[in-house]
Design brief:
mainly beta; three-stranded antiparallel beta sheet; globular; four-stranded antiparallel beta sheet
Amino acid sequence: PTVLGPGTDGLCRVWDLRSSQLIDLIVHSSLERAPVTHSLFSHDGGLIITGGEDRNVKLWDARNTQQPIDNIRCSSLQTKFCLSTKTNTLAIPMHDRKTKICDTQG
């Protein structure tokens, strides 16, 4: 089993729980080093989603985290998101009281 660890340095770490070893390092925000406030795996484990204070939510292929496969720009800060188990729809509530709905399948 693996766990995601969002960080205040713009990075999200992927840890192996059994060995306590760092297995991947995702650079969510390279220029600004804005904190990553939340992250999650898709239900099948193939997708990693990160969100941060830079107002971006990024989708990553869990097998290749060098470049995000999508970047969703938000109108204001978001501190959480929810991924549907049935439709892979991502809901992103934001501080400006808007909610962005996105299809993670393209």
